[in-house]
Amino acid sequence: EGAALATGGSRRGIVVSTLAEARFFAAGGWDDILYAFPVPHWRLAECSELAQRLQQFQVLLDSPQGLEMLLQNPLPGGKRWLVWLKLDCGNGRAGIRPKDPEALGLARAIAQGSPELVTLVGLYAHCGNTYGCRDIADIQAIARATTVAVLEFVTA
């Protein structure tokens, strides 16, 4: 119910943290789901099944190894992996740091390497480092710093 309210009833554009959540929403008629965790190799088969079944099942990548895994496991029927590059802007949990020398190369490899197999949808940054904040000003400072880091990366 909350997800339907949050998306205006469209049943599109939802972000999930687990594949159990993705399967739950897919069973409920959602056909545009982002799995907001870099795809581990042991979850690839589940991600592939969802990507084949749904109009749009999107995943995160944060390493060249993750990209290579997707390229070595193409989706059948002309479908492509829909990928967001996960940036770590201070959370320290997952993602590649925007200032990491490999980050721009990874973004270019996703976007230009094999467009018939993988499509770069965008950049994804999660401000999980706000969880320990004690006031609104601290949260806003992290949001601003994350925004600056993402925009600097896009500009580069």
From TrEMBL:
It comes from Sterrhoptilus dennistouni. This is DSD1 dehydratase. It comes from the Eukaryota. GO terms for biological process: D-serine catabolic process. One of its GO terms (molecular function) is D-serine ammonia-lyase activity. Residues 9-130 form the Alanine racemase N-terminal domain. Gene3D superfamilies: Alanine racemase.
